[in-house]
Amino acid sequence: MAKMIVGGELVEAENHEVMEVRNPATGELVDTAPRGTVGDVRRAVEAAEEGFRIWSQIPLARRGEILYEGASQILARETELARTLTLEQGKPLRESVLEIRRFVHTLEHYAGLAKNFRGGYVPQLDKNRYGMILKLPLGICGAIVPWNFPVSLMGNKIAPALLAGNSVIVKPASTTPLTSIRCVQIFNEAGLPPGTLNIVTGPGGVVGEEMLCNPKIRKISFTGETRTGKHVMEMAARDIKRVTLELGGSDPMIVCDDADLEAAVSAAAVGRFFNCGQACLAIKRLYLFDSIADGFIERLVNKARKLKVGNGIEDGTLIGPLHTAAQRQEIEEMIQDALGRGAQLLVGGRRPEGAAYDKGYFYLPTLLGNVDRNARIVREECFGPALPIFRVKDLEEAIAMANDSIYGLGSSVWTRNLDKAMKAAERLEAGYTWINSPQIIYDELPFGGVKQSGLGKEHGSEALDFYTETKSVVVTTG
């Protein structure tokens, strides 16, 4: 049985209850984790108070060294961690390896910022006075992490929080706690003072809710669906907690008639079907100029047919199962809604057949044409391997259709024309735009959505602003 980590110690839930963690590919039991309670969160808060008292006084350079040491030790256990991640989440092993490396890279990035993280100085405010701008840690921060990228998304939160001098309580998704627990354990062994980084497992309605309500937790960073994010924001407002919300997305991809079609087709396939389409930044709507649409669709259909669906732990698997039965049912209902409105099924649209698939939540990569703009798969976030395709006459129409959404997380445009590219980048209502590039996140650049896709920034040095208080100081010299 896996255990929580509170105050640097492996502990069970106070009620000794556990949750089962099952493999989405087979239904088999992987392990159990504690079913945490309100009391367990409060115990973690007490530990985090003590951890903050010590950690916040450690020099920034030393904090960076500990972050780097934690990254090194996690990388050394890459094979073990990736296997556990595939078993509990379902993604192909090669994607799990990439996620562990993504986590390590984020830790290393913020470790490298340690010596350059500083406040400011304003000379001569007036006679005999100057000003200082201090960047101070907030205190205890709560990190609520989803199941689709449980390790890398945890890294987005804990790395800047720890560098800034805060202590952290992590609440992982109930279905994917195992790899996160192990990473936190390794990190504690790398030199963090006890209580600096804690992890409490359990239901969101219990553990997550207490984190939202506990006045000693001064910041909540949440990644998940928009509806839950609204609740997080509402509850956090009661104590004026800081919040960072990374929420849903329905990312448009625009392909112009002068694009590199081979590269764009490859990017569309990866961008839609990576992690079985279960990514907030996945390409979820594809807009093709009329003149290149037929050829593009033919190539994309051929790619989709060749993607091997299977158990993520097996060699050659490119698409694993959806994470839960409910997730698969949701996708099936969206596709049926689109077909009922007149959409054309281009490929997929069903579960794969055979004994190897009977116990898992598998679904074939699916492409849809002639989709009604009011279909659920267009208006809502589609969290699975299905992509609606639209034909447009020009860039104006493409941008207008792309912006016709409550979401504004990522976006991409493919063109060799710099004027078109910059026009799209400036006018697409999204926090991130890729030009002639796969949708890859970089730690060097701030990441966050607009509209109902979120609030605040992760990644980049900008993320540190969301884990610090800015304090002004006036000094009179005589």
Element layout with pairings:
Elements lengths: L3 E3 L2 E3 L6 E5 L6 E6 L3 H18 L4 H17 L1 H12 L3 H20 L7 E7 L2 E9 L2 E5 L7 H12 L3 E5 L6 H12 L7 E3 L4 H10 L3 E7 L2 H12 L4 E5 L4 E5 L5 H13 L9 E7 H17 L18 H16 L3 E4 L18 E4 L6 H4 L6 E7 L2 H9 L3 E2 L1 E5 L3 H10 L4 E4 L14 E2 L2 E2 L12 E9 L2
Parallel strand pairs: 7-8, 7-10, 8-9, 10-11, 12-13, 12-18, 13-16, 15-16, 18-19
Antiparallel strand pairs: 1-2, 3-4, 5-6, 6-22, 11-21, 14-15, 17-20
The rounded distance between the terminal residues' Cα atoms is: 64 Å
Please indicate the percent range of residues in DSSP E strands (runs of 2 or more): 15-25%
Helix content: 25-40%
Number of strands: 22
The overall pLDDT, averaged over residues, is: 97
The helix-and-strand class reads: alpha/beta
Uncertain residue ranges: none
**Rg from Cα:** 23 Å
* Overall 3D shape: globular
Largest sheet: number of strands, sense, barrel closure: 7 strands, mixed
The spatial strand order of the largest sheet comes to 14-15-16-13-12-18-19
Oligomer: single chain
Q: How many individual helices?
A: 14
